[in-house]
Write a structure and sequence with these properties.
about 120 residues, mainly alpha, 6 helices, globular
Length: about 120
């Protein structure tokens, strides 16, 4: 799979100002596709508390697909160590009205989430 570099700003940075979008798009390199097809032998999410941040305006990973990934991970089960299961409990999930990179477009909201998770 190859993403046309000209489309990258709209795919990854759609909620960021145009000038920054273009600059960030120019910095993108190649992504090894093996990462997307390699089977996972051990689901670490079942053994440690985890948090998922839904990005509702993500053009790279649709919000519907994000929900599916979370449900799939939750179906992996709960363990003694992680009784709430993957993305469970009060800190299991947050939703931001953002694109693929809320760490750039929604810095204050991301900070607030990180603080909540860190002090929990």
């Amino acid at each position: 799979m190859v993403l046309d570099k000209a489309k990258a700003p709209e795919v990854f940075y759609n909620d960021i100002d145009q000038e920054t979008r273009v600059k960030l798009g120019e910095t993108l390199g190649k992504q090894c596709m093996a990462a997307f097809g390699t089977p996972i032998g051990h689901n670490g999410l079942a053994y440690a508390p985890s948090t998922y941040i839904h990005a509702t305006m993500d053009n790279a990973v649709s919000h519907g697909f994000q929900k599916w990934m979370v449900q799939r991970a939750q179906g992996q089960g709960r363990t003694e160590v992680n009784r709430d299961g993957p993305f469970g409990g009060d800190l299991g999930g947050f939703t931001l009205e953002s694109g693929h990179t809320p760490m750039i477009s929604k810095t204050e909201q991301m900070r607030d989430i990180f603080v909540k998770v860190a002090v929990a």
